[in-house]
Amino acid sequence: MAIADDRQRLMPRPEDLMPDRSQQLTYPGAHLLTNPIEPDFTGEVDDKYQYSMENKELKVHGWVSADPMVGFWIISPSAEFRNGGPMKQNLTSHVGPTCLSMFHSAHYAGFELCPGFEEGEAWKKVFGPVFIYLNSAPTGTPYPTLWQNAQAQAKTERKAWPYSWPASADFPKAGQRSSVCGRLLVSDLFQAPYTWAGKCAFLGLATPGETGSWQTESKGYQFWTQADANANFCIKNVRAGKYDLYGWVPGVVGDYKFKNGPINIQPGVMISLGDIHYSSPRDGPTVWEIGVPNRTANGFFVPDPNPKYVNKLYLNSSRKQVLYPCYKALQLTLIPPPITF
């Protein structure tokens, strides 16, 4: 199974999750392999959530069989129909062999990501299309060869988006889609140089709402991009409609929302916003700081996994995997002392 360059491995078989070969752990889906068909998996934990991935990275994932050597891949040319924005995590592939194309999910967030409908409310949304790709190679070819080929195909499909072949009038083609471009500048009265380019900022168009509402928005479409080192951005292939422009800048506190929105986007136009400005919220100069505001868990304390509950894929990886029982035990040992100011 392969879901990223650094997340590839041989996988247990579905029979290994049966009661005579595994022990179910704290929640359904997590199993300690006690008597797997392949002895090398003994003592490992299998859990489909260990293979989740952020929407912005969820472009291709799948499986490779050994003999005959065939790859089966799900390619997502666009994430415009997925809910929760670019940092929302979704399931990918797991033991089965299972290969998922997630259109909508409340995983890791709960009911807030479940769309609610009033009685008689009309709603329509196009999910997909997604691309199912099969490739092959002579038996004995290194597994990464098929993975690299699938990645190349995924790039081809992204360049072809939006597809020209769907017959539905609800799927606008390239000439019916628009672009919104500009440059994001960040201002902070307490941090020199006080105004600077918001390099690598994430900017996206989503249903109009409050600042940050894109994180729980599920009914509409979302279109995201990442600005370059000079803070220039261009959000492409946007469906016609009314949107607010949202965003954030790695390393800068707070959420951005375009103050002159909503933006009413007509089919087949290019909208230039020029320089737009985000003022980081402040009550005064920084006294002390823990971590970096980048919407990831990097920098958080993640304990070493209990040797009884490991996935070998992550033993020597920057991605640490810790199961619930370990955190439960830590609650009793890592409660910090009170801080006096």
TrEMBL record:
Residues 201-268 form the Rhamnogalacturonan lyase domain. InterPro entries: Carb-bd-like_fold (IPR013784), Gal_mutarotase_sf_dom (IPR011013), GH-type_carb-bd (IPR014718), Polysacch_Lyase_4 (IPR051850), RG-lyase_II (IPR029413), Rhamnogal_lyase (IPR010325). Residues 1-19 have a biased composition (Basic and acidic residues). GO terms for molecular function: carbohydrate binding; catalytic activity. One of its GO terms (biological process) is carbohydrate metabolic process. Residues 1-21 are annotated as: Disordered. Signal peptide: none annotated. This is Rhamnogalacturonan lyase domain-containing protein. It comes from Ceratodon purpureus (Fire moss).
